[in-house]
Structure formats: C-alpha cells, structure tokens
TrEMBL record:
Protein name in the entry: Universal stress protein
Family indicated by similarity: Belongs to the universal stress protein A family.
Domain UspA as annotated: residue spans: 3-144
CDD domains documented for this protein: USP-like
InterPro entries: Rossmann-like_a/b/a_fold, Universal_stress_UspA, UspA
Gene3D superfamilies: HUPs
Entry's transmembrane regions: none
Length: 144
C-alpha cells in the first residue's frame, strides 16, 4: 500500500469534487487508507479594512461550510466505503492551514485542485495549490 492517510482539499468547486472522486478511487485499493476531507474558510481579504470583519459574517461562512461538508459526508456514505473517513472545517489562511493539518495528521498524500471557487467565496486559487506543492512534506496530487 502506497498511502495510508490522504488529505483532500475541498471547497465545493468542480476541481475539488474531482479531487474527492480521485481519492475515493484510491480508497478502493485498501480499506486501511484513511481519508480526511478538509475545507478552510477565511474572511475575504480587505473586508477588515471596511469594518466588515464581524462574527455574523464568519458565522455565515461557517454555516455554509458545514452544509457543504454534510453533503460530502452523505455522498461518501452512499459509496459504502469501508475506510475511515473524516471531514474537517478549519478557519484561517487556506494554504497554511492545509499544510499545518497535513503535518499534524501525518497525511502522506494531499489531493488538491489547481484552481477552485466555492459557492460562498474564493477558497482555493492557483496560488494555494502552488503554496501547498512548495511546502508540503508529502506528495501532492494536483487535479486539473
């Protein structure tokens, strides 16, 4: 078995859905592979300058992220995979949070789209996948 713990960066975009599908195909190789599906939300840059950085806005982002991850959980459950699968919602700088999560959870593969837009804001940009590729301590599979 080549991988034991896979992290998928997920934001609801088509490329992140493709990344998740790629991961589920890898899971079929062994029931011992664990999957972590991670989404990160952060306040859009510049909003704090306008006094918009507030708890209500962040709570709205969190609710949207929770709904998105509930949908992911339902989709994965329907596939009846025997693997251990977990979803996580993180808050902060997207690429840094992904690297930190991968390091703290011993991920041995990261799957990420090269660009993405979620329904509620930009989350994964080309610069995010570039940052992850440059700083990850494990292989990174970039989906195009």
């Amino acid at each position: 078995m080549l991988y034991s713990r896979i992290l998928v960066a997920y934001d609801g975009s088509n490329l992140s859905k493709k990344a998740l599908n790629t991961a589920t195909e890898l899971l079929k190789e062994s029931s011992n592979i664990e999957l972590d599906v991670v989404t990160v939300f952060e306040m859009p840059r510049g909003y704090e300058s306008f006094g918009i950085y507030n708890e209500n806005l962040l709570a709205g982002y969190r609710r949207e992220a929770e709904k998105m991850m509930e949908d992911v959980e339902k989709e994965l459950k329907a596939k009846n995979l025997p693997n251990k699968i977990s979803t996580y919602i993180l808050e902060g700088n997207t690429p840094k949070m992904l690297i930190e999560f991968a390091n703290n959870h011993d991920s041995d593969l990261i799957i990420i789209g090269n660009r993405g837009l979620s329904g509620f804001k930009e989350v994964f940009l080309g610069s995010v996948s570039h940052y992850v590729v440059q700083r990850a301590n494990c292989p990174v599979f970039v989906i195009k």
